[in-house]
Every structure is written in C-alpha cells, then in structure tokens.
C-alpha cells in the first residue's frame, strides 16, 4: 500500500489491534491507518462534537500558548494568519487576535467557508489537526500553498517514538487519528517543501517557507 504522504509504495505492516491496523512508510516514516479503517464523515464529526474546548478555558489557553508564544516571536506586526482546522470551539485564533494579528478560520465541519483558502497568509496554524489528515501529502501541499514566502506553518501534534512506545500510546486510540508523524517525517517534509524546520517542543513544530 502506497504512503499517503510521499506516495512511495514501500509501506510495511507496523501494528495490528482489534479495531484497526497501522502501516509505516519506509521512506518518510509516516505511520498511517489504511482507508478501510477510516471513520465515515458522520462518525468523524460525532467524535469532534464531543470536544469541549472553549476560548475562555485557561488550561486550554496555556496548552495552546506553547505554539502561540514562539510563533508570535517570529511574526511581523499585524501579520495575517489562518487557523486551519479550528474545530468547534476556536481558541488559538482569538488568542492571536488579542496579540494584534489578523485571523481567519477554516474547518471542514465547523467553519467551511472555502473562500479563505483562496488567500495567502503570513502564517497558518494547525493545532491537533495533522493527525486527522487522510491524505497528508495533499493537505501539506495545500497548507504550503497558502503561505507567503517567509511565512510560518505552526503545528501541534504528538510524535511517534518507536514501535514499542506506539503500541502503548493513548494517542493512537482516537479513531479520528489516522496519520502519525515522527521527527524523521518532519525532516522529510523539510526537504520536500524546501522549508526551515524548528522543533520547539516534543509536540510543537514550526516550518518556515523559504523566500
């Protein structure tokens, strides 16, 4: 089965559980769930509807600040950004707006206005989003096309360590999570996209589009 990120055919069996299986690409090291085990759109949205994130939740704001703080240090004044996959309770966008940045929202379920995808931005944020990508190669190409030269892509997602840790990992148990990245996967993307990669924290990744 070909890799949904780099399209190479060299994926191998990685892990099997009762509810689904996982494969790993031998080139980019993405771990992914084959399409036969993906939820349909209705079941996927039902899972997202259970999320209780709220912009006034101080704990959630602290969690998101681990991305917003290093990102805003790299942005020009009044930069324009897009929160991609903003979810049912957008919080990062209001936080960045409070810092003076101009924000737009996109989410296929909760903010489906695709007109915002016709613009280009100084930065794009994806917090706890990329692990939901069924076609990560296509989605990363789209995200990259939304950035102006010199712009930043800010990502939060938990990273794969090794097979033994993956087998015990709670993160894989969310059935909406179908793509799992490692440091090596992001280094692959750094080369593919001709980006500048910065691994800020174990789950905070910044990628700059070179001019």
What's the SSE blueprint?
Blueprint: E1 11-16, E2 21-25, E3 31-32, H1 41-48, H2 58-72, E4 80-84, H3 92-98, E5 102-106, E6 121-127, H4 136-145, E7 147-156, H5 163-168, E8 179-180, H6 183-193, E9 195-201, E10 204-209
Parallel strand pairs: 4-5, 4-6, 6-7
Antiparallel strand pairs: 1-2, 2-3, 3-8, 7-10, 9-10
What does this structure look like?
The chain is an alpha/beta fold and 211 residues long. The protein has a domain at 40-157 and 183-209: 3-Layer(aba) Sandwich (Rossmann fold), CATH 3.40.50. The protein has helices at residues 41-48, 58-72, 92-98, 136-145, 163-168, 183-193; strands spanning 11-16, 21-25, 31-32, 80-84, 102-106, 121-127, 147-156, 179-180, 195-201, 204-209. The protein has a six-stranded mixed β-sheet with strand order 5-4-6-7-10-9, sandwiched between helices. A four-stranded antiparallel β-sheet has the order 1-2-3-8, with no helix packed on it.
Distinctive features:
27% helix, six-stranded mixed beta sheet, 211 residues, 6 helices, four-stranded antiparallel beta sheet, globular
Give the C-level CATH assignment of the domain at 40-157 and 183-209.
Alpha Beta
The low-confidence parts are none
Terminal CA distance:
35 Å
Could you please say which CATH topology of the domain at 40-157 and 183-209 applies here? Rossmann fold
CATH architecture of the domain at 40-157 and 183-209: 3-Layer(aba) Sandwich
How many helices does DSSP assign? 6
Helical content stands at: 25-40%
Q: CATH homologous superfamily of the domain at 40-157 and 183-209 - what is it? A: Vaccinia Virus protein VP39
């Amino acid at each position: 089965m070909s890799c949904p990120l780099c399209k190479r055919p060299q994926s191998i069996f990685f892990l099997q559980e009762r509810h689904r299986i996982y494969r790993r690409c031998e080139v980019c090291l993405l771990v992914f769930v084959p399409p036969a085990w993906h939820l349909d759109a209705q079941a996927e949205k039902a899972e997202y509807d259970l999320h209780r994130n709220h912009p006034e939740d101080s704990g959630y704001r602290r969690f998101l600040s681990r991305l917003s703080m290093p990102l805003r240090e790299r942005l020009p004044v009044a930069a324009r950004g897009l929160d991609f996959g903003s979810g049912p309770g957008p919080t990062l966008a209001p936080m960045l707006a409070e810092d003076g940045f101009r924000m737009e929202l996109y989410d296929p379920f909760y903010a489906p206005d695709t007109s915002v995808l016709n613009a280009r931005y100084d930065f794009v944020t994806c917090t706890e989003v990329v692990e939901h990508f069924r076609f990560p190669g296509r989605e990363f190409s789209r995200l990259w096309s939304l950035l102006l030269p010199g712009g930043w892509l800010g990502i939060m997602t938990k990273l794969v360590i090794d097979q033994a840790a993956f087998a015990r990992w709670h993160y894989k148990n969310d059935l909406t999570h179908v793509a799992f990245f490692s440091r090596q996967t992001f280094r692959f993307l750094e080369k593919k996209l001709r980006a500048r990669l910065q691994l800020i924290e174990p789950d905070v990744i910044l990628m700059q589009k070179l001019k």
